[in-house]
Amino acid sequence: MTAAEVTVSLTRTQVLAFRWRAQHLDAAPATVESLALLDYGVQDTGEGAVWALRNRGIQNFDPDDLFYAWTLRGAPHAYRRTDASQVAVATAPYDDADATKRIADASKPLRKAGLSVVEGLTRVAHAERDIVTKPMVKGALSGALNDVLAPEHLRYCRPCDAVHCYEQPFRLGALQAGLELEPDTSPPVLRRIPRLRPAFFGTPASAADPRFDVIRNYLRFYGPATPHVVAAFLDAPVTVIRQHWPQDTVTAEIVDAPARTGGTPHLLADDARQAADSQRDDTVRLLGAFDAWLQLRDRDTLVDDRTKAKELWRTIGRPGAVVAGGEVVGIWRPRQSGGALKLLATPWRKWSKSLRGAVDEQAALLAAHRGVTLTGVEMAG
Known about the structure:
The protein is of the alpha+beta class. Helix content is about 35%, strand content about 20%.
């Protein structure tokens, strides 16, 4: 019997417990070197990557150990600096169809001009590399690109009343050009990554080290999952995900969840026993709105109430999540004025005294992380 013919039966609680520990959200201390999630990248949006790392047991580290780049979905992510060349390969498109999906409407003028999408992206990356010889604000780089890129790379931006390079090619080209984002800069500042040879989309993601492979890593941190779910996370075509699906997987059945459309979920075979043995961990975390725990694409596995899900994953003004034992038990929003921080928490169920105390402790840690004084946790709802 092959691995794919094996089926592991799991409960929803086991699935969440497996993901919780895979993403290192239990109480165990960690380092930049040991935190496996950095193989996939930690999104630096909202409360930011550093708070996400602190929630995963990393309390002290050298900021130079990390680099930041626009990668998955064009969002900024933090990675180990020593992994920069591997990340550049793993986050490149698998092929032209993948590249087309990732840049959406920016692909149409490229094809009209007789270019493959990968070729078009490569031209943008070369231009960015030539222009950024010293740290440069995003807007300045965008303006400089207008002078060197052909019309098929540019579009009129109504909000800015100006012509720009299409946004996704701009973002996805940056790491391929050997550029990183300076941390804590707004607007973003780009600079060259020391000693990194630019990839210029020369190596497809299929050549990535398995530790950084973006499909394997979805299964590693969010398994079990279907190709449709992985494709939604990566903003890639389902057909491409199926073509590059890992061979060492087993099928999974979530016995207390409704059947899903889009295929049978899979786990990496090496994770099957760990998933089956996973037990709930009662650690409490205040997770930022864009924390990896909340980036799953089978959202109803985590929150099956549509009203609550709509509030948690708002398009604009997204709140953070209060998570206990892998379950979202409420949402939170910061209210900061000067050097004072108040946390507004909205419970989704009655909180015990111990849970309330744990939230107070987490709020104090958040305030210390921000370098401000906590004035209290206000309960709403």
